[in-house]
Amino acid sequence: MNVPNQITISRILLIPVFMIFLLIPFTWGDVHLFGANIPIHHLIAAIIFIIAASTDWLDGYYARKYNLVTNMGKFLDPLADKLLVTAAFISLVGLGLFPAWAAIIILSREFAVTGLRLVASGEGNVIAASIWGKWKTVSQIIAASAVMLHNMIFEWLSIPFASIMIYVAVFLTILSGVDYFIKNKHVLIK
């Protein structure tokens, strides 16, 4: 197994670790940072989540730079992304920190585009990630991180950054989903 695939698998393996820190209410207390009271276990979960999310860029960069793109990587990389984002949003909804309606829209789009990719794959076509899909992923990671960090820094500035990022993530999620379906409607219309 090559290095990019090992990095991708490490992202998948970090998901349960991140979830343990996010969901188990350790009695370590809170930390007061930049106007926000953050349970220490949420801060640790956010750091693990951000590290895991950053491996998405790292594995892709390494695979392209050293010409190590494989079918296994093409399968594992988007799967790891979906698992990480799904785990974050469902966990945050369960904690009452993230609106369920936003998670439903985001996860519905993920399933729909995955289905589209499966249909295209069955016909021998590969649907590459679009620029909107990449921005969607970045916005989702920022939104989840800001929520986990209890709007840190921005709370101090009285800016509802986490809430704004939820709306940005939902908007870009819908936009990228529509973009995928418009550009690939030929896959479904046969």
UniProtKB/TrEMBL annotation:
Catalytic activity: a CDP-1,2-diacyl-sn-glycerol + sn-glycerol 3-phosphate = a 1,2-diacyl-sn-glycero-3-phospho-(1'-sn-glycero-3'-phosphate) + CMP + H(+)
Main location (coarse class): membrane
Transmembrane segments: 12-28, 40-62, 83-107, 157-182
Role: This protein catalyzes the committed step to the synthesis of the acidic phospholipids.
EC number: 2.7.8.5
Pathway membership: Phospholipid metabolism; phosphatidylglycerol biosynthesis; phosphatidylglycerol from CDP-diacylglycerol: step 1/2; Lipid metabolism
Name of the protein in its database record: CDP-diacylglycerol--glycerol-3-phosphate 3-phosphatidyltransferase
Compartments it resides in: Membrane
Entry's family note: Belongs to the CDP-alcohol phosphatidyltransferase class-I family.
InterPro entries per record: CDP-alcohol_PTase-I, CDP-OH_P_trans, CDP-OH_PTrfase_TM_dom, CDP_ALCOHOL_P_TRANSF_CS, Phosphatidylglycerol_P_synth
Organism domain of life: Bacteria
Membrane topology: Multi-pass membrane protein
Molecular function via GO: CDP-diacylglycerol-glycerol-3-phosphate 3-phosphatidyltransferase activity
